[in-house]
Amino acid sequence: MDSRIRKSRELLKNPYAHLNGAGEYDAVLPALDQPVLNAAQVMNGYRRGRPFAKRDLELIARTLHRLMWTHRERLLGAADVEPAQIVDPALALKALGYRVVEHESLGEHAAGKDTYEVAGLMDRDHGEVRVSRRFDPWSRNFTAAHELGHALLHTGSGLHRDRAPDGSAARSRDPQEREADEFAAYFLLPEKLVREAFINRFLAAPFELTDATAFALTAEPLAQLKRKCRSERDLSRRLASAHSYNSRHFHSLDEKFGVSVEVMAIRLEELGLVRF
């Protein structure tokens, strides 16, 4: 048996993990390419395992973006690329020497009386991040970015992200899990790119509800929209998932950045792009 399968089964505590529908193993992968980056470069003096403030996490994500941009030709095969192309957790993990491997399932994890589907798993010893296909694409993307956070910020291997980051599920109280979630949001939603995309769609920042903007957003009177949007979060969700404004159609922000509506809405508020 491949040693990586054995190690993964130990982490999952599941002796049948990684068997596909044909009864064959689906976790045997080609050898790693030479890493382009190392964690010490990205951490830039920060020590792994220490508590991280949100500002620290955002600075680390920015450093990673900068280094990936510097090495874009080696990572993407061309220098003439869009900045958004480097905002890819699988590409970042590859740059650090990890594979991202998707599996039909990574099993379940018991937490007290509850049992949850495992969304992601870090196997640092064998340079693998495993992501379950049982979750939506945006959730898988966030899970990969979450594991990228663990790869940089923390030590050890194990199960992470038991449920999708859809805003409705209670998040882990473990500080390292919260840090990995916050890092994932900063990595996937860089301030400059989010601001540019927001202004491109809604023509101003911050967005304020007026008679004109309400009609441009929903073709409804302001009073009617306010009955549906009773809080800043309601309006943020509406903007995060909007496909048109002022009769112009576009990909919604959550689709463009590959995150959930809730994650996108929270980031819009953090950046002061919504005024209710």
Q: Please, could you describe this protein's structure?
A:
The chain is of the alpha/beta class and 276 residues long. The chain contains 13 helices and 10 strands. 46% of the residues lie in helices and 12% in strands. A 4-stranded mixed sheet has the order 1-5-4-6, sandwiched between helices. It has a two-stranded antiparallel ribbon with strand order 2-3. Strand 4 (120-123) and strand 5 form a beta hairpin. The longest helix has 17 residues, at 54-70. It is globular, with a radius of gyration of 20 Å.
The share of residues in extended strands comes to: 5-15%
Structural class: alpha/beta
Report the C-alpha radius of gyration, rounded: 20 Å
Helical percentage:
40-55%
Distance between the termini: 58 Å
The overall pLDDT average reads: 85
Tally of individual domains: 2
**Sheet with most strands: strand arrangement:** 1-5-4-6
Secondary structure tally, helices? 13
Unreliable stretches:
27-32, 164-171
Could you provide a short overview of the structure?
The protein is an alpha/beta fold and about 280 residues long. Helix content is about 45%, strand content about 10%. The protein folds into 2 domains: about 5-190, no CATH class; about 190-275, no CATH class.
Chain-wise SSE layout:
Elements: H1 3-12, H2 39-43, H3 54-70, H4 72-76, H5 89-95, E1 99-103, E2 108-111, E3 114-117, E4 120-123, E5 128-132, H6 137-153, E6 158-160, H7 175-188, H8 191-202, E7 207-208, H9 211-218, H10 222-228, H11 232-241, E8 244-245, E9 248-249, H12 253-257, H13 261-270, E10 274-275
Parallel strand pairs: 1-5, 7-10
Antiparallel strand pairs: 2-3, 4-5, 4-6, 8-9
